[in-house]
Amino acid sequence: MVLMVLPLIGSVSVSEVLVALTTACLVYLMVRYFYTEIPAGLRRLPGPTPLPIIGNVLEIGRRPYLSLTAMSKRYGDVFQIQIGTRPVIVLSGIETVRQALVKQGEEFSSRPDLYSFRFINEGKSLSFSTDQAGVWRARRKLAYNALRSFSTLQGTTPEYSCMLEEHICKEGEYLVNRLSSVLQADGRFEPFPHIVVSVANVICGMCFGRRYDHDDQELVSLVNLSNEFGKVVSSGNPADFIPALRFLLSSTMKSFVDLNTRFTTFVQKIVNEHYATFDKENIRDITDSLIDHCEDRKLDENSNIQVSDEKIVGIVNDLFGAGFDTVSTALSWSIMYLVTYPDVQERLYQELKSNVDQNRKPRLSDKPNLPLLEAFILELFRHSSFLPFTIPHCEQWEDPSSFNPDRFLSADGTEVNKAEGEKVTTFGMGKRRCIGEIIARNEVYLFLAILIQRLQFLPIPGETVDMTPEYGLTMKHKDCRLKARMRTRDEQ
Ligand code: HEM
């Protein structure tokens, strides 16, 4: 073979030899770059073989929650894939995930340092930041305390047990009236666009002490951005996984940067107004309480972690961002399930009717008397798994694909089975577990109780309700028009 090649060399020009040598060097460097050296004594994780540059993106496809589940059946609970040029370890199975996030919580408490995360909240995001020098920890604690103290604060009148209840009850009433007028005008409605404004108003109330009208274009356009945001963050921006692409600013990336700027500008304006009218003796909302905290820290020379004024914007921005899309998605899916399972909807209505006087609105204190509603919410979290990467493993459940709230009830249906409920891990686990969990659970419960008491949700005759989710940070249902009927107070 060598002998056969030698005579050919004479007919090749110097420049051709140089091109060939350069190509060979590039191939060699690429192979070295993609080949991850495994430290001695450790073995390579199982997983599909990656292609150069793109890795396994073709196998992952558009529905990663399904393709990765299929891969876990083939490669086991711990396997490796490659997205672009980045190696990614995939964990599945409740015990494996618990081992990593809870038992080895410290090691797994960080986030990957992705390029697009630098544009979220100007790189100061609590939810998306890696923990540098304990800053995430300090911000998380601050945000958690602010959320807790403002949701449990006394309502403005004794009618409400706390501020959170007051905000939800008032927004629930506005929502019912809004749906009633849309139904009168059009005879049908789309759940998500109305719900998202009501839920955003609850978090706006707590963070900024204000609410917006359902037709307020500034808020409506802002809350609609969350869908685009979720698509980039969850499906991955190519520049996160192929560093060379950072230099080619794609249109997706441009709109991602733009939407983050719009979000921050919205919050910044409100925070500035709060600074201008700040009164230490009258802390009005979460923004005020964070400003107050910063003022104290400036005076406290011993404090080791300073939270600067600009980070206040970051924290409020995070709470606002995390606080409306998730809850709205849960509520919007709830309506879809009520329509798809009318017998469950009727049982929920009857439960409310027997336990809450028709002449008053449901309250947080009614929760222990409404076990079916609580079981319905647990089953909604489990069955929809709308946060795709907190999917509880199927083997934990009997007949996992059927929607059956009764699986969470005691045999006589009077109590929620707490042990079963704890297997639903929608809020994550470990050090990064959701800090809005209590607020979120209360919001989903109380909004639903108010809606079910006042409205009966129905499909449009002749139209099917499509329950196929669309992939995103929170998986939403497709746009869907429904009917609803206002309940009369004396109906059976
Ligand atoms: C049904 C509603 C909600 C669900 C299902 C949900 C779920 C989650 C999940 C799965 C995480 C990530 C956990 C992890 O990385 O391991 C998370 C993080 C977070 N959630 Fe929620 N959430 C909800 C509502 C809320 C609300 C209402 C707020 C605030 C008011 C909130 C604030 C946050 C924050 C700030 C983080 C980031 C925590 C960190 O990185 O340290 N969430 N949530």
Describe the structure.
The chain is mainly α. It has one domain: Orthogonal Bundle (Cytochrome p450), CATH 1.10.630. The protein is 53% helix and 5% strand. The chain is built from 17 helices and 6 strands. The chain has helices at residues 2-9, 14-34, 57-60, 64-75, 94-103, 135-152, 163-186, 191-208, 217-235, 238-241, 251-276, 286-299, 309-340, 342-355, 371-384, 418-421, 437-454, and strands spanning 78-83, 86-91, 455-458, 469-470, 476-477, 483-486. The strands form 3 sheets. Strands 1-2 form a two-stranded antiparallel sheet. Helix 8 packs across helix 9 and helix 8 (191-208) runs antiparallel to helix 13 (309-340). It starts with a helix and ends in a 6-residue tail after the last strand. The model is unreliable at 1-11 (pLDDT under 50). Bound molecules: protoporphyrin IX containing FE (HEM). Protoporphyrin IX containing FE (HEM) is lined by residues 126-127, 140, 143, 147, 203, 318-319, 322-323, 326-327, 330, 387, 390, 426-428, 432-436, 439-440, 444.
Counting helices, strands and paired strands, the structural category is mainly alpha
By CATH, the architecture is named Orthogonal Bundle
- What compounds sit in this structure? protoporphyrin IX containing FE
Structure annotation, total helices:
17
The general outline is globular
DSSP, total strands: 6
- N-to-C span: 91 Å
Residue stretches low in confidence (pLDDT < 50, at least 5 long) are 1-11
CATH superfamily: Cytochrome P450
Overall CATH class: Mainly Alpha
Instruction: Give helix % range.
Output: 40-55%
Q: Sheet bearing the most strands, described?
A: 2 strands, antiparallel
CATH fold descriptor:
Cytochrome p450
